[in-house]
Amino acid sequence: MVFDTVISGRVWRNGKFEDNDIGILDGKIKEIKPSISALSKIDYGGCIIVPAGIDMHVHFRDPGYREKETIYTGSMSAVYGGIGTYFDMPNTRPATSSADACIEKLATMKKNSFSNYGIYGYTDNINNIKNLINHVIGFKIFMAHTTGGLVLDDSIDLPDLIRNLDLTGKITVFHAEEPKYFLKEQADNLVKYSKIRNCKSEAEAIKRVINVNAKNIHIAHLSCPDNLQYVYGKSFEVTPHHILLNNELPLNTYGKVNPPIRSEKDRLNLFNAFKEGIVPIMASDHAPHLENEKIVSFENAPAGIPGVETMYPLMLYLSKKGLLNISNVIRSLSENPAKLFNLQKGVIASNMDADLAIFDMDKVTNIKGNRLHSKAGWTPYEGFSAIFPKDVYIGGIRVIKEYELNSDPAGRSVVETKKHSNFIN
Fold it and tell me: Which domain holds residue 73?
């Protein structure tokens, strides 16, 4: 067999690293073995070859907020961080709550995305589900206010909506905060903000969702370790900022995010849950705002922080230091998101998509906001140690080469176009 590309290095397979060659053809991994005969191969020596990350929760702000981020800049930031696939949230302008809006957004992605992509749809009307189903990777329900103004109205029958969304067979992601449990106060710092949008509001929202008999539900950005008791055996995610940052750090408005960053005790307990493999998925909740939007009063500052480019590099550095098990990192950033959405990605095996990230684990750098590729231009992880990918392949295309962009946008949609016969209109 003649391959398009053959690469060689320490390949992550079956829970361990093995010295192997990988033969890539037509965007797929076709062969993995200790030696593949080829006219030329790219030898990565002692570098590790791992599945590219799958970030199931980003806000690339395009269309409607392109001053904050675009598909082009957001996906570029993603591939520089080893993310091969991302799923973008619906709270753009217009929101992806109609077929036309979905089609327009996907057309922008087809032209401009360096990573593979999918979009979530938003609807609180069960009659609208059929209009979205063939365009979206899943659905998103905002149970509390967020950028873009999409929030579930109190008059909506949530159990009925969940059950109808569940019939599509696609995942519904929940921003789980219950506003009626927010304190009626104004916050001027991160500690107060955490008390206002408190852990009880998160707990009650989660319970409200999981009490519905539905299979395809996912809880986004769980922030309070006490709430792990409600999601055992369920699909849920944590973010890097909730396991690495606490609300006593001098971040001020730069650390304002929904749900809020919690106490050091909560942070450490959530970090330990991730370390122990209790958490199935990590997602960045990349939500960029410009610095001039953040340098205002705490009350008026928008909530959200960038993170798609730094997530994988931060976690790999922590694994190098022995603070995390690399198997849990790869499982939560690649394998489990791929399983959740039934993608031919997330593991290095024959006939899987050739979405690969190569890391030199000896190349540790300090994160600098002005060196990242999001339009935000800043990061709450300024000065943190990280390991960025040396090379990244998207569908067999070498998009990052020697830490630099090496390709035009090469991402593809992962949305299934087939009809879902189990969905009742």
Answer: 53-340
Are the C-beta atoms of 70 and 92 separated by less than 8 Å?
A: no
Sign of CA dihedral 190, 195, 197, 201: positive
**Continuous segment of H or E residues that includes residue 56:** strand 53-58
Residue 63 preceded by cis peptide, ω within 30: yes
Is residue 147 over pLDDT 90?
no
**pLDDT tens per residue across span 269-308:** 999 999 999 999 999 999 999 999 999 999 999 999 999 9
Tell me whether residue 285 is one of the annotated catalytic residues.
yes
**Distance of alpha carbon 187 from alpha carbon 189, whole angstroms:** 6
263 lies in the same domain as 361 = no
Kindly state whether residues 21 and 95 are assigned to the same domain.
no
The pLDDT mean for the chain works out to 95
Burial class of residue 134 (count of CB atoms within 10 Å of its CB; 0-12, 13-18, 19+): middle
> Cα dist. 70→98, 108, 112, 254, 259 in Å?
20, 10, 9, 20, 24
Q: Cα–Cα distance between 373 and 231 in angstroms, integer? A: 34
Same domain membership, residue 359 and residue 326: no
Q: What is the mean pLDDT of residues 197-211?
A: 98
The reported pLDDT for the residue numbered 315 is 98
User: Which amino acid, residue 136?
Assistant: V
pTM given for the model = 0.96
Choice among 62, 166, 285, 355 that is catalytic: 285
Give SS3 for 186.
coil
| Residues linked to residue 175 through DSSP beta bridges, in sequence order | 142
Distance CA 286, CA 244 (A): 15
**Is the same domain home to 354 and 318?**
no
